[in-house]
Amino acid sequence: MLAAGIPSPPVNGFAIGPFEVHYYALCILVGVVIASWVTTARLRAVGINGGTVIDIAIWAVPIALVGGRLYHVFTHPGDYFFPGANLWNVIAIWEGGLAIYGSILAGVLGVWIGCRRTNTPFVALVDALAPGMLFAQAFGRLGNYFNQELFGDRTTLPWGLQIHTSSPAFPAGLPADTLFQPLFLYELLWDAAGGALILLLGKRLRLPRGVPIGLYFLWYGAGRAYLETQRLDPTELVLAGMKFNTIAAITSALVGLVIVLLAVRRSRRLNDGSGLLIDAAGKSAKPQPADHSLR
């Protein structure tokens, strides 16, 4: 019998006729809806047609999914390429296995293409998208819960996560009642807090153009860098003694920091040194350029 803690779901989907619907896919879909809704509202707040979000998503979402899957397969080759392997599993995205960094890199390309085709300012779009992305990723982590993945070392904490011994991710040699750190839950809370923080800062301060997306990379990268060191299902790729995903997370945080610093520097230059940020009422000693800065 499993010990007390957070129980894992007995199933990861349900059937509709001959079709199997996986909760993992539904979580991703709901995450896309959340990101689109938040982005639309934020674009409209700065005078940009929010309806363009759907047109951009038509490009960004499929490209992001392909990128996320390719990154996952690239960092876990032993799961897909071995004697007798069914190569169709490479595209079995519904069974889990999406790498967020692959999705981000490919998604940025998709967003850029969509912005070009809809004549939408790219930086304004990604700034509007930043908190929505964190909320979407938070909800998407529930998909890891249904797939019984993204957990850490053994724990005796009351919120320890139960993992069924029948799960392929269950570590060999451990008792069936072992509880694990629910890293999916920690990341869910971290992402949700980051999205709320960006929205709060936007309400209290007029953030310079580029700061929201910079904060996204900085916040997510910093949290993910720590959580990667706690995972029991590490990537197979190791560089200089460090997991590839950890390197990607640290790089993400550093890129975010650079983006924020450059955006603040640009804002100071445009304001002639009058201040780091404009106050919540939008008051300033000098007229500000129309750069679609988000509140």
Summed up:
The chain has 7 helices and 8 strands.
> Main sheet: which strands, in order across?
1-2
End-to-end separation in angstroms reads 51 Å
Overall shape: it is: globular
Q: Given the structure, what is the number of helices?
A: 7
Describe the structure.
This protein is mainly alpha-helical and 295 residues long. The protein has one domain. Helix content is 54%, strand content 7%. It contains seven helices and eight strands, in the order E-E-H-H-H-H-E-E-H-E-H-E-E-H-E. Strands 1-2 form a two-stranded antiparallel ribbon. Strand 1 and strand 2 (19-22) form a beta hairpin. Keywords: Cell membrane, Glycosyltransferase, Membrane, Transferase, Transmembrane, Transmembrane helix. Belongs to the Lgt family. GO terms for molecular function: glycosyltransferase activity.
